[in-house]
Amino acid sequence: MTTQKTAAQLPDGKPAADKAPDIASASVPETLAALAVKAEAGLTRAEVEARRKEHGYNEVIAEKSHPVRKFLGKFWGISAWMLELIMVLSAVLGKFADLAVVGALLVIPARELLPGDIIRLRAGDIIPADVKLLSGTLSIDQSALTGESKDANKASGEVLSSGAVVRRGEGNGVVILTGANTFFGRTTELVQNAHPKLHIEAVVSNVVRWLFVIVGALLGLVIVLSLSLLWAGWVHFGLATNDSALYTFSFLTLLYMAAFSIVSARERRWFWMTMPSKTLIAALTADVLTGTVLTFVGLLGLMPLPWWQTLAIFVYAMVSCLVINDILKVILIKWRVPMAIAVARP
Hints:
The protein has helices spanning 20-25, 28-35, 45-55, 67-73, 78-93, 96-103, 143-146, 183-193, 199-236, 243-265, 278-297, 307-344, and strands spanning 2-4, 105-106, 118-122, 130-141, 152-154, 159-160, 165-177.
């Protein structure tokens, strides 16, 4: 890819960026007039500096490279090799006029392009900016931009989008948009800034939020029922005057409530709709039996309780979790979860 810059005197050369859409749809003469550039001359160095301050570099994200590598890179590549070969052949054949013409074409990094630059496009080039074709016909591959596998034919006056690949043909074009203002650049920025939320994510988020609310409500109910049982033991079982018995009573209450809560919470419908796994049954049974035996035998700080108190705690915990708590669970899930899914629908 080459760009043409000569010392021709031109107007101030500061095209307005907000006229980009009009430039894209305008005719070739109107486009050149809006960009204040001549197709046969290009931009002067003064105009390049002025437009560089206004438009910046032709890039979406700046990338720094070593100055020496950057300098040598200007002489490396297929386009550079072709120009260098042409210059050598022209010098060998004595066609110095052709050599002078080639010398007017500069090979520069794509990031240094500016609106108004006249560039040369050949087969194999990646179009570095949004360009309006001035002369020649090209066949370009726009699959990276549009997903269309078929090559598109472009004639003079048509716009070539940044990122497309020239498959066949050769021609000159004028740069109309660079960097983040190009079609490709705008698309890249939209993708980077967009945070789309899938419908399934909205549904799951809404359902999970309400499940947390339901779990919190059930946990609150279990705490209230447990405290009610402790209050009954405090008043009717003489726990107010016996700390060791109070510790044992509290331990059994927490053990049985936890075991039956697990049985209820594992199923979103009624707890008896499905059987727990054998592993879960074995683990819960081992925990309950171990805790019950320890309270019968007694440990340091845990006074043995009468069998009827242990049975009362067991029955109370079973009814609280598998009846009262289970009813509340089913009602809340049937009431809120379908509504949460409905609200999340677009």
